[in-house]
TrEMBL record:
<feature type="transmembrane region" description="Helical">
    <location>
        <begin position="45"/>
        <end position="65"/>
    </location>
</feature>
<keyword id="KW-0333">Golgi apparatus</keyword>
<dbReference type="GO" id="GO:0000009">
    <property type="term" value="F:alpha-1,6-mannosyltransferase activity"/>
</dbReference>
<dbReference type="GO" id="GO:0005789">
    <property type="term" value="C:endoplasmic reticulum membrane"/>
</dbReference>
<dbReference type="GO" id="GO:0006487">
    <property type="term" value="P:protein N-linked glycosylation"/>
</dbReference>
<feature type="compositionally biased region" description="Acidic residues">
    <location>
        <begin position="492"/>
        <end position="501"/>
    </location>
</feature>
<protein>
    <recommendedName>
        <fullName>Mannan polymerase II complex ANP1 subunit</fullName>
    </recommendedName>
</protein>
<feature type="region of interest" description="Disordered">
    <location>
        <begin position="462"/>
        <end position="501"/>
    </location>
</feature>
<keyword id="KW-0812">Transmembrane</keyword>
<keyword id="KW-1133">Transmembrane helix</keyword>
<dbReference type="InterPro" id="IPR052086">
    <property type="entry name" value="Mannan_Polymerase_Subunit"/>
</dbReference>
<dbReference type="Pfam" id="PF03452">
    <property type="entry name" value="Anp1"/>
</dbReference>
<dbReference type="InterPro" id="IPR029044">
    <property type="entry name" value="Nucleotide-diphossugar_trans"/>
</dbReference>
<comment type="similarity">
    <text>Belongs to the ANP1/MMN9/VAN1 family.</text>
</comment>
<dbReference type="GO" id="GO:0000032">
    <property type="term" value="P:cell wall mannoprotein biosynthetic process"/>
</dbReference>
<dbReference type="GO" id="GO:0000136">
    <property type="term" value="C:mannan polymerase complex"/>
</dbReference>
<keyword id="KW-0735">Signal-anchor</keyword>
Length: 501
């Protein structure tokens, strides 16, 4: 008779009589293969379930903690298991720890204590600094979260002295909320040989070398100024005339990797009042791509807005509608450098301002292309406008000089006319009214009905008949004269009575 054993009975036998080798062997021979298979299955299942749960919690922790770091630490940090690792460095002097996942840049950074690195390249900027610091003091972004970094280079004026004066005033305000965070000033020359006039800076021949030098200056400043605790980087030209005080918040809340406003400039009335200024913000076109392919020189740089390079690109500046929504966005390939807000991670991961020909562009336009190549979004706001100062070109200056000379000539002519009019009034009496009165008096005393014996006959004809008539008339006149002379010689009788009395 074959014995049957339940699993419980097997456990009982094994546990109660482990020393009974014969019983144990009998059971192993009877049910050994099935028991070993079930034990292996049970053990593998437990390992699989345990591994799955462990993996799930690890992945969940990474996901929640990462999202919490990006959103400012909001997540499940209150649970010990989900708290990020922070090394204890209290006993290690001179060592600082930064988790860069905490500085990714938030769209509401002003509420989450996001620090901004405010970069300002300066060259011969003494005359522009007063207006710049006025804008800076009026910004609504918390000043203590703004770190200023200046690069003074190749200047011939007192840029450094004026900068120090304004910084001293800014950091000495009684209201400490108006004071800025860290401030750094760097001075380095890059051998900029191009002048600072409008025509020098914007002349076609100077664009390639000038932009490559500017790219070097920007990269140098950004590399030495960017700290691990910065979440955003804001680049701003010093010669902006009008900009909203909330420009940082206005750009930041779009939550884009790189974003720029539209830039225009005011003009004198004789030039049309306003004009698009920054044509370096654009969308790539097929004509632009083909043009780049035709430039065989590896150092060639396409510069926008010049007839020498017809790219037919869509410019951010020309998309402006005064009544348009300032929140509208436009994807860009190249960008201008007047006002750029970018997340700090864009620069930390390697994007920069190429000081060489990158896809036939350099500096800020190449920065836009490079950032796009690195899968960052580059955005412009066509209806959100800031205003650059008006700088007259060489042609404008010539026309203004002509206008000044013309105005001077008109004033001189007006002065001479006024002088001669005054002399005329003093030196001569106006007798026109007197002559009018006398003329009326003379004409009133003339008798126009009186007939005259001697009538003047004028014959203007040139034919012979008229000539013979003229001779006949002359003969008659001579006869009359002879008759008159004969009568004058006649004696008048004494008894002559002309009245026949």
């Amino acid at each position: 008779m074959k014995n049957t054993y339940s699993r419980s009975s097997i456990r009982s036998v094994v546990r109660l009589d482990p020393w009974d080798y014969h019983v144990y062997r009998a059971l192993e021979c009877e049910l050994g293969p099935a028991m070993r298979y079930k034990n292996v299955v049970s053990h593998s299942t437990l390992i699989s379930v345990g591994g799955t749960l462990l993996t799930f919690f690890v992945v969940l922790r990474l996901l929640i903690w990462s999202s919490g770091a990006v959103s400012g630490g909001v997540g499940m940090g209150w649970l010990p298991f989900f708290k990020p690792f922070v090394p204890n460095l209290k006993n290690v002097p001179g060592v600082e720890f930064y988790d860069l996942r905490n500085y990714q840049g938030d769209k509401d950074g002003w509420q989450r204590n996001n620090r901004i690195l405010f970069c300002v390249p300066l060259r011969d900027a003494a005359e522009h600094l007063p207006r710049f610091f006025t804008h800076l003091s009026e910004m609504s972004y918390p000043h203590n979260l703004i770190d200023l970094s200046f690069l003074v280079s190749d200047s011939s004026d007192d840029t450094m002295g004026v900068l120090l004066q304004h910084l001293q005033v800014a950091q000495s305000q009684k209201d400490k909320t108006k004071r800025f965070g860290n401030i750094e000033i760097f001075e380095k020359d890059f051998g900029q040989a191009i002048g600072q006039s409008f025509s020098d800076r914007h002349g076609f021949a100077a664009q390639g070398p000038r932009r490559k030098l500017m790219a070097r200056a920007r990269n140098w400043l950004g590399s030495v100024a960017l700290k691990p605790y910065h979440s955003w980087v804001y680049w701003r030209d010093v010669d902006v005339e009008i900009a909203p005080v909330s420009i940082m918040e206005d750009l930041m809340h779009h939550d884009k990797d790189v974003i720029v406003p539209n830039v225009w400039r005011p003009l004198p009335d004789w030039l049309g009042n306003i004009q698009p200024y920054d044509l370096n913000s654009w969308q790539e076109s097929e004509a632009g791509i083909q043009l780049a392919e035709t430039l065989t020189d590896e150092d060639s740089v396409i510069v926008e807005g010049y007839p020498e390079f017809a790219t037919w690109r869509t410019h951010l500046a020309y998309m402006r509608d005064p009544d348009g929504d300032p929140e509208d966005e436009m994807e860009l390939d190249g960008i201008g450098g007047v006002s750029i807000l970018a997340k700090a991670k864009v620069f930390r991961t390697g994007s920069h301002f190429p000081a060489f020909s990158f896809e036939k562009h350099a500096e800020t336009e190449a920065f836009g292309k490079l950032s796009r190549r690195m899968n960052y979004n580059v955005i412009g706001l066509p209806h959100y406008v800031i205003w650059h100062i008006y700088e007259p070109s060489t042609e404008d200056l010539k026309h203004m000089a002509w206008m000044a000379e013309e105005e001077k000539r008109r004033l001189e002519e007006s002065r001479l006319r006024e002088f001669y009019n005054r002399i005329w009034e003093i030196g001569f009496d106006d007798v026109r009214m007197d002559w009018s009165d006398e003329r009326q008096s003379i004409l009133k005393n003339l008798d126009h009905t009186e007939s005259y014996q001697n009538q003047i006959i004028v014959d203007w004809s040139d034919n012979d008949e008229s000539e013979s008539a003229s001779q006949t008339h002359d003969s008659a006149e001579q006869q009359d004269r002879h008759n008159l002379e004969d009568h004058q010689n006649d004696e008048v009788p004494m008894d002559f009575d002309p009245d026949h009395n």
